[in-house]
Recover the amino acids of this structure.
């Protein structure tokens, strides 16, 4: 029995997006900074892992940490200005790699000569979804038209 491989959305990306959604909600509610403990408890995320993830998000200027008794994390900019792709790259690096290379850096001989074009198209399709969907779009459920179209495809929710 063969195994199928696909695009791997890591726990780091999943936890980062979930944490950022909590911050976006706090921003919308004007409830101020949230501690790592508060973020972790709201989505039942591992605290230590979340600390490391938020360090990456801070380095990417997607969050800002505030010190003091009412300290914690806030978004680095408006949620409508942060794409899911920004979050993905901040915690996991490039959206697509082929054996450690960017898709456009791959090169093949013979019958596989045109394979880099396919890898670049795969990366472009990931960008189309992840870079065109803002944190605010995801928080409110008002996804971009192209994402809604993809979700409406007859086999979108079918495993294969």
């Amino acid at each position: 029995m063969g195994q199928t491989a696909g695009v791997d959305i890591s726990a780091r990306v999943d936890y980062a997006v979930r944490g950022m959604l909590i911050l976006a909600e706090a921003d919308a509610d004007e409830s101020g900074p949230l501690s790592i403990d508060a973020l972790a408890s709201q989505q039942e995320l591992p605290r230590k892992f979340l600390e490391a993830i938020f360090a990456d998000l801070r380095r990417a200027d997607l969050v800002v940490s505030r010190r003091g008794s009412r300290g914690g994390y806030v978004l680095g900019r408006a949620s409508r200005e942060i794409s899911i792709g920004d979050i993905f790259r901040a915690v996991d690096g490039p959206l697509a790699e082929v054996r450690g290379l960017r898709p456009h850096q791959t090169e093949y001989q013979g019958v596989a000569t045109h394979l880099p074009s396919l890898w670049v198209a795969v990366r472009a399709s990931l960008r189309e979804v992840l870079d065109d969907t803002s944190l605010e779009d995801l928080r409110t459920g008002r996804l971009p038209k192209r994402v809604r179209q993809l979700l409406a495809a007859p086999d979108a929710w079918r495993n294969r």
In short: The mean pLDDT is 90. The chain has seven helices and two strands.
